Amino acid sequence: MTPLAVDHSIFGSVAFLIEAEGKTILYSGDFRNHGRKPGMIRDLLNHLKTKTIDALIVEGTHFGTDREEGATEYQLEDRIVDLVQTAPALVLATFSALDVDRIVTLYKAAQKAGRIFVVDAYTAFVLYLIGRQAKVPRPSRDMGIRVFFNHLFERRNLDNIREKFQADRIELAEVLDEPAKYLMVFRPSMVEFDFNSQLPSRCRVLYGYWQGYLNKPDWVELQKQVALVDGDFIRAHVSGHAYVADIINFANSVNARTVIPIHTFEPQMYQDHFPNVTRLSDGIPFDVC
C-alpha cells in the first residue's frame, strides 16, 4: 500500500495505491484540484503512468450539486483581499483551523490588505505543528501575526502552548481600540465568552464552511448578532472537495478498468460520465477482476 499526497483542505491528505495478488486499486480519498497545491494531482498521475489500475474508488461529493466547476483558493484569496480592504471595521473570519490552505489564504489576504492577522491559540498551534513539515506562516509578530488567547483557551490552562506564543500575544482590548487594523480568526463561542454577547460595531464576518450549516440554530443566531451591530455576514469559501469536471478529468486520466463511487449522495450519476461504473452496496464483498 502506497500513500500518495493529494490536495485537500486538510493537510496531509492522501490517496492510497493498493497492489496485491496481481491487482491494483487506487482509492482517491478526499481530494481537489483547486486548492493552493494543484500540482499534487499532476504528480499523482505521473506516478501512475506505468500502472494499470483495475479499480478506481473515487469520491463524488459534488455530483448532484451545482459544482460542475468553481472558484479556486487563489481566486478566493483575491476576493477576501477586496472584502477586507472595503470593510469599515474589524473583520472576523470563521473557518476550520485544520484547513491550512485557508489559514494561508487569510494570512496572505491580510498582508495584501495591510492588516494584522490575529489567530487564536489553537490556530497558532496548528501552524506551529505544520511548520515542522511544510512552509507555512510562522505565528509571530514579525510575520504580521498576533495570537489571541480566547476565554475557552484560558480556561484550559495549557501552559506549554501559552509559553510558545506569549511574546506574540495580543489582548482583545488592543484589537477593539483600532478594529480596522485587524483580520481576526473567530469562533461563534467568542460572542458570549469574549465579546460579552455583543459583537463589535459594523464588523464583517467571513464565513468559511459548507453553506449547508447556515440553517443550523447556532449560525442563524450568529447572523442575527451580526445584523444587530450593523455588520455584515459574507460567505467566503471554496470547497475542500473536487468539482465535478475535475473528478471526470481525474478518473479519465487514471483510466481504470472500473470506477467505484464513494462519498457521494448520487452514485448513479457516475454512469452519466463513465462507461465502466461498479456500484457497491455496504457490507457486500467485491472481487477485483
TrEMBL record:
InterPro entries: RibonucZ/Hydroxyglut_hydro. It comes from the Bacteria. This is Beta-lactamase domain protein.
